[in-house]
Amino acid sequence: MSTDEPVTLVAVARAAGVSKTTASDALRNSGRVSEATRARVAETAIRLGYAPNPSARSLRMATTGAIGLHLPDNLTRSEYYMSFAFGAVEQAARLNYNVTLIMSRQLSGPGAFLPVDGVILADPLETDPVVHGLMSSRVPVVTCERFTGQASPDGVVRSEHAAMFEELLDRLHTVGARRPALLASSAAGDWGASLQASFRQWCRRTGAPALLRELPFGTAADEVPDCVRDLLSDQPELDALVCAPDGAAMVALPVLRDAGRRIGGDLLLASCVDSAPLRHADPPITAIDLRPREAGAECARLLFDILSGTAPKGTERALRIGINERRSTRPSG
């Protein structure tokens, strides 16, 4: 077979050691095909770079009974992303769909065939090659937050992070914070870039110095303490700290205490991502509620609406978020 010729279903069936009918049923998740055979056929199709004839597949008709979900590989244990995944799974289950977690090894190259009807990308990073591969796949893609790269997803679920972050900073300013600092996430993603831009804009508006330290996306928790110590050393008059990365505020809390700072007293502490540990910390830590479970469910709803044709490509939907104010930002005098 010439390398310029498209891989056929017959070639996939032959390589997998099954009939053409069995291969078709396996890839469409129909018929009486064992899970082992279905997995072998799907793996063979991906390895060979098989792609169905686009004219034979319609976005209005599901063919696999599954959607794909890609999370940032180094953050799959994050409470936020786990809640996001559960939300997507619950919504998919209501429509008798399965959810497949897509890993980098499942992509054979640009335009690769994926045994799913559509894909959800959580916080897609411009620097992630897996995201670029999924964006160029032959299935609809919905992202949670906008993609900052060149490709355009078929749908976007987004939140007004900049406005909510500025509201949080205004609350800190109201109770006396004049030199707040942001422990920022990478600007490679829409969320991190939005928070950094919002912080600088707020600092210009209020006349506060733009005290910002950026952590690379997925920075290990054991790297956060040194960053906080350096910040305290450079800025001894720091009176508030807002941590963007999920979990960073909990790691920063004992470091701040060891430095003699009183949380909710001479230093206010807040997080851009809420979690159970923050609610049960001493003192409980103020955080922005990103509603990850609802975000995952809304991404799944939008993807199904695009698949069924009830929502056009390019649809954007907004998800409301809020602030859970707690004792860490209530000065105790």
Instruction: Name the CATH superfamily assignment of the largest domain.
Output: Response regulator
Rg for CA atoms: 23 Å
Helix content: 25-40%
SS field, number of helical segments: 11
**What is the general shape?**
elongated
Supply the number of structural domains.
3
Q: Tell me what portion of residues adopts beta-strand conformation.
A: 5-15%
How many strands, which pairing sense, and closed or not: the largest β-sheet? 6 strands, parallel
Q: What is the averaged pLDDT score?
A: 87
- Number of DSSP strand runs: 12
Report how far apart the termini are.
78 Å
- Structural category is alpha/beta
Report on this model:
The longest helix is centred in the middle third of the chain and has 17 residues, at 190-206. The protein is 38% helix and 15% strand. It is elongated and about 70 Å long. It starts with 8 loop residues before the first helix and ends in a 9-residue tail after the last strand. It has three domains: 1-50, lambda repressor-like DNA-binding domains (434 Repressor (Amino-terminal Domain)), CATH 1.10.260; 61-159 and 290-319, Response regulator (Rossmann fold, 3-Layer(aba) Sandwich); 161-289, Rossmann fold (3-Layer(aba) Sandwich), CATH 3.40.50. The model is unreliable at 54-62 (pLDDT under 50). It is an alpha/beta fold. The strands form two sheets. It has a six-stranded parallel beta sheet, with helices on both faces.
